[in-house]
Amino acid sequence: MLNRPSPYDCFTVADLLVDYADQVLPPDQTERVAAHLSQCPACQEQVAQLRELSIQMEVSEPVKPTPALRNQFMLMLEQEKAALAAAPVAAPEVQAEARVRPMWAGEATRWTMRIAAGVALLIMGMALGQWWRPIAAPDVATTPPAGATKHAIQLASALSGDASRSLSASDRIQLVSNAVEQVEGTGDPAVQVLINTLNFDPNANVRLAAASALYRLRSDPRVGEAFIQSLTIQTDPNVQILLIELLVNMRERRATPQLEQLAKKPDALPIVRQQAEYGLGTLI
């Protein structure tokens, strides 16, 4: 029976699937993706869809605009030109004064009003982007614990505060992955930094990487407890599913109450509830 790859395994090859489908990957990456596909039906289906889409794009003929569409566009263009030409022309002294007025004041033309509306929409979009932007956890979330090693301090500094915001998600994933090799046995403070990253990093892919890194350090007794607690606060389905798989692999029966709660959670995705039920059936 083949081992099912985790969501993090799928994430690590996701960017390569398009080139794999087009057969333009280097040999080493081709071998890596092929090995993953041999165990992952979901990614196999995605590659099949990519190849089918590529075939359809190759055989399809370019769509040309119809004469009616072109005529309609030219009519709208002429109407705009006529509207601009019909706008009253201010005297030179008024024009000089108008240059210091807000563009929405006085005798604004329809064209100017449209520009103003476009700017307003752009500002509104920027404001909404600020409103909905994922909020990073407080800096204290990744503060190294007392007695931290030099490596733990450097890791905590890189994954928190202004330093973290200056790094891309890919850079943080690389940091998390490299951290495993530098952990100096059970009890290393860097493990707590990884746990904080799992719980508080705003990017789900970084949290996936932190969970996978911690699984490699599962001999540390903090890891199992961290996975159980993290399952109660995670909202991304990929992270939830990965945590369930890791808890099952670790035979963490202490996670049973959290799995029962997640299996009955009405706003959880069906696949997450099914995974929680699977975990319960395996652990009980």
UniProtKB/TrEMBL annotation:
User: Transmembrane segments in this chain: where?
Assistant: none
Q: Which InterPro entries does the entry mention? A: Anti_sigma_zinc_sf (IPR041916), ARM-like (IPR011989), ARM-type_fold (IPR016024), Znf_put (IPR027383)
Protein name per Swiss-Prot or TrEMBL: Putative zinc-finger domain-containing protein
Boundaries of every Putative zinc-finger domain copy? 10-44
Q: What does the organism's lineage look like at the top?
A: Bacteria, Pseudomonadati, Bacteroidota, Cytophagia, Cytophagales
Question: What SUPFAM superfamilies does this protein's entry cite?
Answer: ARM repeat
What is the species listed in this Swiss-Prot or TrEMBL entry? Hymenobacter koreensis
Q: Which Gene3D superfamilies match?
A: Anti-sigma factor, zinc-finger domain (1.10.10.1320), Leucine-rich Repeat Variant (1.25.10.10)
